[in-house]
């Protein structure tokens, strides 16, 4: 992100591809975590809410989980127990060898995209220490447990940093997009109302709305699209901290 702070660092939208490729491969943190599924994206409790143990890596905007309870790992149970208990140092040859076995055997890990996620420290949860929460989509919530408070703080910082860097990349992509393809967007007269679909925080549903932009300080109102008078106000944003385009899976989009 530091290298892209200058507006002249990139000359085209296509050049942002390399930046996103680098971001997606960046390893922020890794280690063993306990995980408890609490609420699904629709806010309903998960049917299976037991604590489970995983080897986890945060690479770019994705948390990757390898299940340490996979029955195929039984031959390496003693080695896995050693890294779970912290008896094997992270990054040591023994640790790397065990992780290699895990990845070679558990070929279909689980994934959570944390691009617009939020996390917060819980601390003690009943009989468990070093617990933090992760909200990644809709109203969902996962409880995570690190090996100690220091590791818990490192995981939370790493996740927040990854989210921050993703947002900065999106902002940089947006600046390149406007400069290259829509240079008059910020100068020309334009409508103050738009028909849009909105996914509000805490939900997964896209809602048709009429979006109104106020003059002066950035204020945004979202109203129902029906013909009722006055229109029903669904939500409003009084202080917008950031606005940016989401980088597409394919630049042709």
What structural keywords apply?
alpha+beta; single chain; 29% strand; 11 strands; 253 residues
Question: Can you describe this structure?
Answer:
By secondary structure, the protein is α+β, with helices and mostly antiparallel strands. 25% of the residues lie in helices and 29% in strands. It is built from 4 helices and 11 strands. The strands form 2 sheets. It has a 7-stranded antiparallel sheet. Strand 8 (193-198) and strand 9 (207-213) form a beta hairpin. Helix 1 runs antiparallel to helix 4. It is globular and about 65 Å long. The two termini are 24 Å apart. The relative contact order is 0.13. Residues 1-8 have low confidence and may be disordered.
Largest sheet: 7 strands, antiparallel
Quaternary structure classification: single chain
- The strand count comes to 11
Distance between the termini: 24 Å
- The helix content, as a percent range, equals 25-40%
Shape call: globular
| Overall mean confidence score, pLDDT | 88
The low-confidence runs, each spanning 5 or more residues with pLDDT under 50, are 1-8
Largest beta sheet: strand ordering: 4-3-2-1-7-6-5
| Number of contiguous helices | 4
Structural class: alpha+beta
Question: Rounded to an integer, what's the Rg over CA atoms?
Answer: 22 Å
Instruction: Tell me what portion of residues adopts beta-strand conformation.
Output: 25-35%
Order of helices and strands: HEEEHHEEEEHEEEE
